[in-house]
Amino acid sequence: MRRSKLFFVIPVLIALFIIGPGVAESFFWGSIKYGVIDLERIEAEAKGYMRFREERDRLQKEFEDYREQVLAEHARAIKELTKEFTEKTGDDGTKQPVLDREYTRRAEQLANEAQKKLDRKEEEIQKLIEEKEKAARGELEAIVKKVAEKKRVQTILIKQHVIKGGRDLTDNIMKEWEKELGRQEKEAVKRKKEKN
Questions:
Q1: Do 23 and 40 have their domain in common?
Q2: Rounded mean pLDDT of 186-196?
């Protein structure tokens, strides 16, 4: 009976060490460390995300201003078109059906041109916003890796998905990101001075 227990335990131990030292270590000594981050809080409070939101809002405002400009130009073009066709209309009304079709065709053409301008600008703005968001997420990822290495944490989990446990690194990440932004600003000022 004793021999059969050893026969079972030895392969399990060998398997744990083959699977990986981290798994075996955690099984026997519980030393795998994991940290948690409150991603919602970081997105709401971190200066890196605040900067991204300000840039996103600025770009959206730029699009709204452009949209108003295009719509105003379109309204002027329609007004001129209406004036042109009003002058062409004779008293007898014989040309009216032909003129109506031509007016409708040109009005639709103006509307399509305005819509194409808006679509191009919206696509351009959306692409810029996506690039800015990707950059902010990339910065956050780099900061998370840096803090995890400093704190010797092997795994990072999202706090909202963890019921209990884990070392909360949210404050550390926000502070480290703020330091990084400060360094970036100093470098930008330094480069600007060197150019002048």
A1: no
A2: 86
Total domains, the chain: 2
Least-confidence region, from 26-35, 78-87, 91-100: 26-35
DSSP readout, the chain? Answer: -HHHHHHHHHHHHHHHHHH-HHHHHHHHH----EEEE-HHHHHHH-HHHHHHHHHHHHHHHHHHHHHHHHHHHHHHHHHHHHHHHHHH--SS-TTHHHHHHHHHHHHHHHHHHHHHHHHHHHHHHHHHHHHHHHHHHHHHHHHHHHHHHHTT-SEEEEGGG-SS--EE-HHHHHHHHHHHHHHHHHHHHHHHHHH-
* 38 and 25 within one domain: no
pLDDT > 60? residue 103 = yes
User: What would the mean pLDDT of 102-131 be, rounded to a whole number?
Assistant: 94
Domain limits for position 3: 1-29
- pLDDT band for position 7 (50/70/90)? very low
